Amino acid sequence: MLTPIIFWGASGHAKVLHEFMRQTGFEVVALVDNQPGIPSPLHSVPVLHGKEGLLAWMHNQQLTSPRALVAIGGARGKDRLDLQNWLSNRGFIISTVIHPTAFVAGGVALGAGSQALAQSAIGVESAVGSACIINTAASVDHECVLRDGVHIGPGATLAGCVEVGAFSFVGAGAVVLPRLRIGAHSIVGAGAVVTKDVPDNVVVFGNPARIIRQNV
Question: What global pTM score does this model have?
Answer without folding.
Answer: 0.96
